Amino acid sequence: MNNTNPPTYRSAAAAGIASPRLQKSLHGLQDRFGKGAMEIWATMDDREMRHRVKDSRMNTFAHLDIILAELAKNVRARGGQVHFAATAQEAIDYTLAVAKKNKVKRVVKGKSMTSAEINIDPALEGASIEVVETDLGEYIIQLAGDKPSHIIAPCIHLDRNQIGELFAEKLGIDYSNDPPTLTMAARSALREKMLGAEMGLTGCNLACAETGQISLVSNEGNIRMATTMPPVLVALMGMERVVATLDEHREALHLLTRGAALQKLSTYVSFLGGPANADDPDGPKEFHLVIIDNGRSKILADPEFREVLACIRCGACLNICPVYGKIGGHAYNSPYCGPIGAVVTPLLDGINKHADLCKGETLCGACKDICTVEIDLPRMLAALRHKLAYGSDRWNTRQHNPIEAYVYSLWKLLVSNSFLYRLSLRLGWLLQRPFVKKNKMISKMAGLADGWTADRDLPPLAGRTFTDLWKRKYAVGRPSASKAQKKGGS
Amino acid sequence: MDSQNAFLRNIRQSLGLSPDEERPKRLFPALFAKTDTTLILQGIKNRTAEQQDELVELLKTNARALSITTHIVRTYEEAAAVIIHLVRTKSPEFTPTKHIIHHDHPDLAALQLWKRFDREGEGVTVHTTFSPDRQLREKTIASFIGITAPDIGVADSATLVQFTATGCPRSTSLVPSIHIAFLKKENLVADLREAYALLRERARLDSYVFITGPSKTADIEAQMVHGAHGPREVHLLLFCLSVVAETPNEAPIPLVPLKEE
Amino acid sequence: MTGAPVSLFIQCLVDSMFPEVGEAMVRVFDRLAVPLAYPEGQTCCGQPAYNSGYRREAAAAARHFIEVFAEAETIVCPSGSCVHMVRHHYPELFPGDPVMAERARAIGARTFEFSEYLVDVLRVTDVMAEYPGTVTYHDSCHLSRGLGIARQPRMLLENVRGLELIEMANSDTCCGFGGTFSINYPEISVAMVDEKITNILATGADAVVGCDISCLMNIGGRLSRRGEKVKVLHLAQVLAGVEGESK
Ligand code: SF4
Asked: Both A388 and A423 in a single domain?
């Protein structure tokens, strides 16, 4: 999130749209996973489960102080160390201190969006520590010096040829564009890295307070490697990624793996609490859990947005969003992209800064339908726009567009007064006349409608509105008409 | 601890509570209330032979869809035969020589694998994860086959639940290229709900893992490839003492002559 | 079918740009002998302001609407998104004013989308319409997801003489309109409508039918620019037996 001068949402979106390769991948992704998840939800035996998990998430938040205290207590009872970090910087400082104390030269990372959120890599690298992403997609992104563009499938925007060229260049292998060959090349390269790292750095899908364990989900096994082979483990956890009991864990997991990849279960779900036994040949000798706020408590405090914390980062909303499906993940300029990113990024990193994320969707509602835990993202997008419309002290947000605000105050005048409203329609009809072409369409319009007419025709205002026609043609002979009508406007 | 106090104070404040008033867990019993699993546990215990066989069938079907090869074995000898066949026919991925490693577990000890290969002639070295062998890490890394005896099998998702314990470390099912799991039929449960009920009984375990099929990735053009970082093959030896006769094997048991004991 | 008249709420875009859709609706109701009224003070439901975050302004529009339709027993509108606005967002617009909030809720309960009213309230699925040709149907977002109306328009279409309904792929994927979104983010909007058009064209249908003129305006505007021949019709126009007179 700390990019300097990133491309704007619109320009990055346009770039994504212009890439046939990206369009093809996104189409394939949505066709398979978006539809697949909807199908699973529609045919699930236990129709209440999504609702239940959502309720349980919300109930957890209402008691988050108690549940996190319990989690910390139980992790410590297992010999783990728990650190609470109010800010990204605190989390970075702590992790760095652990690394330095253990003279760590290489960190292997399991896919962790929290680590991207707090932007920890530069700090580690600044301390001369090699940082290696181990999720294949993230590794490819790292080799390419690129950014992830999907929560679950980070390099969805790259195709096999690009990856083949990248591997030939960076890994020194013969060029191949065969996914199994490329995967095996990464397997060998990363195996060396993982077996020889002093520290693993992971996220946390869901911690369980009752048992004092974190759980990590992966298909590749990289997270198991990162939590098994290095002697030190640091797990970064957003403070909302916790459930109280194992029962709740099971249901959340049940939904997570289905929403994310249509799987009954991911290949690996690791449960870890505390360090390994002294005699074990593997497993971390030091186990650190870093619980991170970094703006989450502010979200927690606002009932309008608290719901977004229920997100379990399954990525399903990306797999259905028609906007994401066109523009891809880079336009969001955040580790969190797609519909969830459009809501959570402004909340974590500034509503004004990310105004385009608040406004750049159609509110079609597909993300709400698919969301594994029934989060009403469109409602929150509208609420974010509300903050932008008037500014908000609570969110330290200023009015986004005073001109737009002025236009809407004029609009308010018109829609509240039918006489003025009708007059303005008439005026508009007169003004548009030079623009109307022979085919009765407007193909070039100045001002507000310019965005519309760049690639679309606009039908003109009608010479006679329905209201005019009603009076002329239909009102007569309808004795009942006036009965339903109180007054003709204010 | 100071960071914790400030952190939790802030959460209470965000919740509109008095920040300094800690809320003790005991005042919120519903929060950690345990659902009653007695019935689930009883259900597992009282499962009839037919029901168990149904689970076996279900497991086999689900395992196949996940590229897990299931071998039904009726005796330790049969199990050993399958393993020997795999050791002989598969090639190591990272090393020139054949090392295999298995958990220090009674069921695996019963296979007597260390006796079954002629070290000189066949060049197969068999390791056991005895604790505290200081060289286990290297032995594991050198092994191309890791053999474990998972504690629970889940039919509905074809999942193996592997507990970490002394003599049963985490890397045996992870670092070698091929994972062979020996599962007794009686450790098979229907679904995750049952598995979690059993796990709750074992709440003190620090670490366990659910394993569902071989390691896989679809990060390159969404094409599924097995063997991203973990094992690229998983073989399940399902040990069924009483087996329905018509249960066909997923992979036929190879008739490998066992070495004289 | 007599009794209290149905008050027409003619969405602002229909009123000012597509009056023929309103007329078609009148024709259908006349054919069914449903008494009609048209409260002439009506303007806009306030949706554009609401979706842009301007809730005070949207509340003003809502207040006006509630006044204008105060005595209407039943309100029927040819736009899913406007009905969605009235039914689901009006009640949120008056925090701290329980009287208005209740009036908002009440008016939402008696406001219906056209196809919904025909099928669910009047229980009519055959309006004795004729339309010779093949059509495909676009599920607009607020209608299908917001109001759960997808079955009703199809039932009505299936009973139109001479009409063949060919479903398009992803009929419920957003067309990219999104109100001011279409103006502020035209590249994205057009990419989305192009995909919609691909799916429409793939059916080979002569016309695309929908229940929200805003989406149809978007689809139609793009089809026109691309020079495609497919007609764009509001459901009411099909049910009126009118073959897209002005298109
Ligand atoms: S918002 Fe919902 S669908 Fe999107 S990532 Fe989060 S949980 Fe998954």
From this structure: no
Of the candidates A163, A187, A194, which has its C-beta nearest B220's C-beta?
A163
Dump pLDDT digits (tens) for A55-78: 999 999 999 999 999 999 999 999
Please give, rounded to a whole number of angstroms, the shortest distance from the CA of A222 to a CA of chain B: 6
CB nearest A63 (choices: B6, B31, B171): B31
> Looking at residue C143, which CATH number applies to its domain?
3.40.50.11810
- The verdict on C147 and C236 lying in the same domain is yes
Taking the CA of residue A414 and the nearest CA in chain B, the distance in Å comes to 41
Residue type, B70: T
In Å, how far are A407, A460, A468, C49, C77 from A490, measured between CA atoms?
21, 27, 18, 20, 21
State which residues form the domain around C109: 6-119
Residue given tokens 């199990």 in the structure block: B79
Mark whether C204 and C172 lie in a shared domain.
yes
Q: Does the beta-carbon distance from C42 to A418 stay under 8 Å?
A: yes
Give residue-wise pLDDT tens across range A101-140: 999 999 999 989 999 999 999 999 999 999 999 999 999 9
Helix (H) or strand (E) holding A108: strand A106-109
Residue B222's alpha-carbon distances to A24, A153, A330, C48, in angstroms, are 12, 8, 19, 39
The residue range of the domain holding A444 is 402-489
Tell me if there are at least 3 CB pairs under 8 Å linking chains B and C. Answer: no
Same domain, C101 and C137: no
* Chain B residue with the nearest C-alpha to that of A269: B210
Rounded CA gap, A271 and B160, in Å? 13
- AA letter at A369: D
C237, two tokens? 């126009």
| Residues A205-262: tens digit of each pLDDT | 999 999 999 999 999 999 999 999 999 999 999 999 999 999 999 999 999 999 999 9
Per residue in C202-225, pLDDT (tens digit) is: 999 999 999 999 999 999 999 999
CB B234 within 8 A of CB B211: yes
Tokens standing for A433?
């006349």
Residues whose CB is less than 8 angstroms from the CB of residue B8 and which lie 6 or more positions away in sequence, other chains included: A65, A68, A69, A84, B22
DSSP type of residue A277: P
Pocket test of ligand 1: the residue of A114, A151, A340 to mutate, having most ligand atoms within 8 Å of its CB, is A340
**Residue C13: how many other CB atoms lie within 10 Å:** 20
**Residue A318 CB contacts under 8 Å (≥ 6 apart), including other chains:** A150, A151, A152, A324, A329, A337, A338, A339, A340
Q: Return the structure tokens found at A37.
A: 């998840």
pLDDT of residue A481 exceeding 70:
no
**pLDDT, tens only, A250-279:** 999 999 999 999 999 999 999 999 999 988
Cα separation, A228 vs B205, whole angstroms = 16
Residues of B with Cβ-Cβ distance to A255 under 8 angstroms: none
Rounded Cα distance between B199 and A250, Å, is: 11
Per the document, the length of chain B is: 261
H or E element in which residue C144 lies: none
The stretch A319-336 carries a mean pLDDT of 97
3-state per-residue secondary structure call for C89-106 = HHHHHCCCCHHHHHHHHH
Domains of chain B are: 49-239 (3.40.50.10420)
Within the 92-131 window of chain B, which residues sit less than 8 Å (CB to CB) from chain A?
94, 129, 131
Residue C54 lies in a domain: yes
Please report the ipTM that was assigned to this predicted complex: 0.94
CB contact under 8 A, A326 and C195: yes
- Does the pLDDT of residue B243 top 70, yes or no? no
| The pLDDT of residue A484 is above 70 | no
- Whether there are 3 or more C-beta pairs closer than 8 Å between C and A is yes
The reported pTM is 0.94
Residue C245 placed within a domain: no
Q: Does residue A308 lie in a domain region?
A: no
Out of C119, C134, C160, a domain closes at C119
